[in-house]
Amino acid sequence: MLQGKQEPRQITMNLERLPNEEKLSLCRKYYLGGFAFLPFLWLVNVVWFFREAFVKPAYTEQLQIKTYVKRSALGLLLWVAVLTTWITIFQHFRAEWGEVGDYLSFTIPLGIP
Amino acid sequence: MNVFLLVRDKGCNFPFRFSEYLKPHKFVAEIQIFSLYYVVLVKAKIYVHLNYTVPCVRLLNATHQIGCQSSLSGNVGVLHVLESEDNLDWVLKSGPNPPYLVILESPLFTRYSEHLKNGSRRVAGVVVVAPNANPLEAFSPHTTCPNENSGVYSEDYDPALAHCNVTVWNPFGNGLAYEEFDFPIFSLKDDNDTHVIRQCYMEHNRAVNGSTPQYPLCAMQLYSHMSAVTNTATCMRRNDIDFSISPEMVCDPLGDYNVWASTRPINNTAKGHKMWESVVIAAARLDSRSFFFDIAPGADSGVSGFVTLLAAAHALRNATQEAPPNRTILYAFFQGETFDYIGSSRMVYDMQNNQFAVDLDNVHSVLEIGQVGLHTESKLWLHSDPVSRKNSSVLFQVRKLIENLQSAAGGLNISMDEPSVSQPLPPSSFQRFLRARPIPGVVLEDHQSAFSNRFYESMYDNAEYLNISYPPNMTPEEQLEFVTDTAKALTEVATMVAKALYMQAGGSEPQLSSIKADAQIVTRLLYGFLVRSNNSWFQQLIPSDLMSHLGKLGYKPTNFYVGVTQQSSEPTLLVQHLLANLTGSTVNITQENCQNQREDENDKENKHMYYYMWVQGAAPPNSTQREGFCIRSTVRLSKALSPAFDMREYTSKDYSTWTESRWKSIKGRIFLVASHDLEMLTLGVGIAVLLTSLLLTYVISSKADMLFSSGREPTNATY
Lengths: 113, 719
Prior knowledge:
The complex is a heterodimer.
Chain A: H1 20-33, H2 39-55, H3 62-97, H4 99-104
Chain B: H1 3-20, H2 26-46, E1 48-49, E2 54-55, E3 59-60, E4 65-66, E5 75-81, H3 85-94, E6 100-105, H4 106-118, E7 123-130, E8 185-189, H5 192-204, E9 217-226, H6 232-240, E10 251-253, E11 255-262, E12 279-285, H7 299-322, E13 328-334, H8 342-352, E14 363-369, E15 379-383, H9 392-408, E16 415-417, H10 430-436, E17 441-445, H11 476-481, H12 485-504, H13 519-530, H14 536-540, H15 547-553, H16 570-583, E18 585-587, H17 591-595, H18 606-609, E19 611-615, E20 629-633, E21 636-641, H19 643-646, E22 659-661, E23 663-673, H20 676-702, H21 704-707, H22 709-717
Helix pairs in contact in B: 1-2, 7-12, 7-13, 7-16, 8-10, 9-12, 12-13
């Protein structure tokens, strides 16, 4: 089928183009979403809004954004700490735990205890 | 893993993967074909694959893992042909290019296995070259006390007899086959492959006058990665865990089928006790093992016994049909006996639980034919159990059985004797019956105390060891019919066993003289099991759909390793069909009725009593079309799977818990490796070229306006 050449859809994910109120609401959404056991949202939030929160010259919503970014970072750090600890413990003791270790595993490596 | 290999491998895989992402296009297809060709060519140039690889594999039981394995990507090592002890020092200490892949003759392996095992950080793997002739010194990779903990002689039964305290049955046993090695061990025949390997070693790796050999060196890679680990409980549990995306089985229980038949048909549909039935069990074991996975000739340890029993069953066919004795003789061929009596323990378990055609109350006595292939000066030994003999009625029955055996030997060239009164039974299936209850029984063996078999459960327990040899220049057909001295000797034993069984079953005296085993049958059986399975006689006696099994065995001796329960092994199928042909009778019915287990369309009864099999028969002289016929016999198969797996007791102390690990690929190849420095240099240059090209591309694209300004002008001109 012949079709006219389509223009690529404009992706408006550039924070620069958003008005400040929308930035705040977006940051807030990501922050709240993170509580649903989704630490990656917090990670995205921190990376994405870091400039807005700490580098950009001050504006009205910046204080709130700062709070959200800080809290997101804190939550993320907590997650990282917990996951790292658990993964270390699990990898170290999986073989020793025997039955329990096997039932906790999603894929069991072949040929090693 | 060496980089050289890695780089080459990547280079080969890349075109495949790359092309998957491209749309089919003629040009791409051409590239693909070209690169595929290139890959094949490069691979063929780099690697020499080994044709005949026999690995040692991992087995597991309730507490241990035994056997060998490689890493997932195969173990790579610089080849080293070990010829003497100072060479060993090179491998374990002084050699500059560890790890080494050691090639040695099998007697040396026996001697150095412990050193190699301990120095496993410098040993990538071992290739054992099997000699073409049997060694002079004894060799048995089995333990000194076979099936030590699964026989009847436990601490509870008689502490004095437990753990082979009285007799060490297999004094030459070094236990190699029950050890664990953390590197792969392969066996190679002394032929073309080993010649190539030796040549590669001589050309590249041999240190001349104490100098260190120069790169490139000849290396070998062995793959035998095993999926299961630790013990049976662990691997059976992992078999059951299936919430992963691709559930994967890691191990399977060892097991197969027992073959049994009776002189009088016994209803096999109605299980449990049979009123007025009294059976004399004549037993032999079918399986054997060696250190390596698919070599288990078991000539003396298995074949001599069951061939004798098959011949005896054949000798009894007419007598038991014309003048049936009072008792029924039940021939039983047990599978998996090497691994803690899998077959016999299962049959006893089934008898106890009314899952077998008869139960233990029906069993009158047991006569087991053990190793009988090596009776020097025609002397056989009648072993019985000293503990159950304390019971006077058992003692009386045992004495009677021994009397029957001795009177059966009258007129034959066999003498028989009993070992000392206090000596326990040798490892035998009968021990599992005694574990259940004191049943009178005798085990017939060619040894008084320790085995006379010096190659017990090894690859040398073969036709050569039993002195089965043929005059030179004989065709396979002539060899099949040639009656060897071994066959003559075993025929005598078979005749004696048949007569004794007939008397034991209460048969009439006048018939005795007509019972005679056929030397022709014995020699064919020995030829078929020990020299060449795929022979014209075996072909006649099996259904056509088993021809592929026979073809797989080819011109080699049969492998008697029991294997896993998933498939019936060739020995079981062969013995099943041979026993049917030797004890059954031909019935004149159609192939369809035969295969549907009935004599005519309305017959619904006979299938409970008989088993019908349509065998392909022989082709008449002037035709190529085989003329099949129907055999009616009482031959049945019964499960030889350890009850531990039905009860899911994977740490059972009463029943066998042996499992075999699964694996993905077992192969070996040799190739040349470059020095580590050269490998690193190659990698470094590769990375440098990549980075330079990236940089260049960046520079060119950023300065494109400048560089390609003249080229752009025509497009600009169209405005």
